[in-house]
Amino acid sequence: MAIRSYKGVTPSFNASVYVDESSILVGDITLGIDCSVWPLVAARGDVNYIRIGDRTNIQDGSVLHLSRATKSNPDGYPLIIGDDVTVGHKVMLHGCVLGNRILVGMGAIIMDNVVVEDDVIIGGGSLVPPNKRLESGYLYVGSPAKQARPLTEQELAFLKVSANNYVLLKDEYLAEAQ
Q1: What's the predicted TM-score (pTM) here?
Q2: 128: closest CA among 152, 97, 84, 89?
Q3: Mind telling me which InterPro entries this protein's record contains (predicted)?
């Protein structure tokens, strides 16, 4: 796997984490327990930091980046992802904050200074423009993303199931590698 230091900081994670060998992780990145990073993910913690919570999966072809500090924004925008988050294929996350138990659909783009509260589904192909806040308990779809409807009890339960399914899958990949 391509784990690269940047300015003396190397991505960190423990043995419970699966990172596909085709993915690239650079710089100030921390992955929580039981995370998985699937093929062709590019994550750059170079001009700020990336923090990913426990049991979160980042699926194939996703791009994770952030924004540097500037005079007008002295802290920049790091990328912070909570626990039990499923990030679908080819998602772009840039300088945003995702809470816990979120599903980001395939091809979605979430931009700088967006905050996604806990228990949210973002539909595939959605664009969440900068400086938005997505309220807990809803489905958001479209470009720009708009609140579509409350999540059902089944959808809320599925958020944790989805994350757990990827924990099981990454365990199979780790076992096969031994």
Answers
A1: 0.97
A2: 97
A3: LbH_gamma_CA-like, Transf_Hexapept/Carb_Anhydrase, Trimer_LpxA-like_sf
